[in-house]
Amino acid sequence: MITINRITFVGAGSMAESIIKGLISKKMIPSRNIIATNRTDDERLECLEEKYGIQISYEDERILTDTDLIILAMKPKDAQSGLERIRPYVKESHIIASVMAGITTGFIEEILDGPYPVIRTMPNTSSEIGLSTTTLCMGKNTTIIHAQAVEALFKAIGSVTIVQERDMDATTALAGSGPAYLYYIAEAMKQAAQSLEMEEDKARELIADTMIGAGHMMKESSLDLAQLRINITSPGGTTAAGLDALMEHHADEAFKRCILEAAKRSKELQRHFSSIEKNPAKY
């Protein structure tokens, strides 16, 4: 069994912060055992240090010498330069976990050029309150022991589902990006409530509780989603009137397109970085 005691974040954006906040709040990793770095943003690193009591540094050798898990949290466009930067200091004892959308385990393995266990993950920002929906897949050098160690870590900040890498584009669109779509719906519901002269804070609370309740029903009920909808839709009633408006504006098609476009973009990123992997001299 592998125990993860120290973590280094390469990249310090919103996803990194969400994971850091979740791990510390769940007392999974002491804040002093978390190190973060980025390319050049001193202010961002200092903010994370002050808020969470983590360590920060630009000294790559130092931050990677004594760590168990390296979490790649840079922007996908910075993947190659970030990997090349840390490559001299990566050891076989390290586990590499990526939270970068569209970046395959093969690309990471190719750039690092060693027998390192690489795990591709897709959490979401709900990790900061311990409710992330995380998917992960294993690279060619990753054993089940490595996967279990990373799975245990991410389970501390939410649920974890292990998938094949071919499914990562879909899970990125559904779960990784999903909270943004739900917030978009919530925004529209809140605006409608304000049009009906309802207080903003009360509307927000009602919307949040409604989403939470519906989510629990989806998980705990054996009924088909369509049947759950039908069960609250009385002919000629208020729910039916609302659903008629959604159908009139083809809301179902819009949301299908939303998921498909997000998955398409993930595939595009994957193809782009696969071409870099095959022709590194061109980039």
Explain this structure to me?
This protein is α/β, with parallel strands linked by helices and 283 residues long. It folds into two domains: 7-164, 3-Layer(aba) Sandwich (Rossmann fold); 178-262, Orthogonal Bundle (ProC C-terminal domain-like fold), CATH 1.10.3730. The chain is built from twelve helices and eight strands. The protein has helices spanning 14-25, 42-52, 60-65, 79-86, 105-112, 144-155, 168-176, 178-195, 200-220, 225-231, 238-248, 251-278; strands at residues 7-10, 34-37, 55-56, 69-72, 95-98, 118-122, 132-138, 158-162. The model has no long low-confidence stretch (mean pLDDT 92).
Radius of gyration: 21 Å
CATH architectural label of the largest domain: 3-Layer(aba) Sandwich
The shape is: elongated
Element string (H = helix, E = strand): EHEHEHEHEHEEHEHHHHHH
And the CATH topology of the largest domain?
Answer: Rossmann fold
